[in-house]
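Dear support,

Our group has been running a series of protein-ligand predictions, and this particular one with iron/sulfur cluster is the one our PI (initials K.S.) wants archived with full inputs and outputs. We had some confusion internally about which version of the output was final, so please treat the block below as the authoritative record. The input we submitted was:
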Amino acid sequence: MLCRCGEEAVIRLKQYRRSFCSRCFVEFYENKVEGFIRKHRLLRPGERVFVAVSGGKDSASCLAVLKRLSEKFAIELSAFHINLGIGEYSRRVEEASRRLCEKLDVELEVVDVKAVYGVGVEEVAKSSRRKPCSACGIIKRYLMNKIPRELGADRLATGHNLEDTVEFFFKNWASGNYFWLSKQKPLLPSNHPKVLTKIKPLFERSEKENETYAKILNLPYEEGKCPHSVVSRWREVGEIVEERVPGFKLSIARGLEKLNIVVDAPKFKSCKVCGEPSSGDVCSFCRLIGRV
Ligand code: SF4
Ligand code: ZN
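Confirmed final output from the archive:
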C-alpha cells in the first residue's frame, strides 16, 4: 500500500479512495479541518475558544489541530477537562489531558465534580436511579457551558467525530426526536446570553482518522474505555452500511449539515438554585445532584 508520493502508506481511507503516508495524511487531515472550519464559519478572529478534552483520541486531535490552526484563524485557545469521579478511569483521563496540554502548551482548566459538588457520576446515577451515561450527559452539558463561559470563553469546541454524528442521527431520527436532531450541526450558535456557541470541527472526521492523526503526532491520550460505555447498535448499523457503501457515514453527516429543521425556540427561565438557563424552575443539573 503506497501513498501518492511513493512513500509507504499508514492509512487507507476508502471513502476518499486514497492511501496516505504519515506526512501526506497530516497535511490532508489539517487541510480538511481547515476547509470545514471556513465552510461553516466555525471560528471568528479574536475569540477565545475552549476545547473540551476528555482524555481520549478525538478531543486530543481536536485540540492539536486547532492549536496548529490557531494563528491562521487568530483565536486564543484553552482547554477544559471534567473529572467525573468515575474511579481509576477518571484519574487516568485527567492525567492524559494534563500531559496533552503540557505537550501542546495550552492552558488547561480542570473541574473535579466530586471535589466541587461532593458527588461523582456514579453516586448521582445511583441516587437518581438513572443510567450512568444519562446522569453523566446532564453533568457534562451543564459544566461544559457554565465553567468555560465563566472563564471568558466565546465558544466551546468538542471532539465529536463522524461516528458520533451518525449514531446521533439514527438514534434521534428513529425516535422522532427532531428537536435534538436540529442540534446536530457543526455550529450551534448561542441562543441565550448564558449559553455558549458550540462548534464541532471534527464533524466529518472519522475515529480512524483522529486516531491516526493522534498517533502520528504522538499525542498523549487514554486508550481505555469508561467502564460504563456500551456499544451502540446505531453505531454498528453505520459500520455495517459503510462496509457495503464506503462514504455512507460521510454522506449522512453532509446531509445533516444541510438539514433545516425548524423547531420552536426554547423558552429559558433562570434556575432558582444556580441562576443558569433552564426550561423549568430548577435546572436538570441542580435537580440531579440534589441541590434542591
Ligand atoms: Fe459518561 Fe457514559 Fe461516557 Fe462514561 S461512557 S464518560 S458514564 S457518558
Ligand atoms: Zn441549577
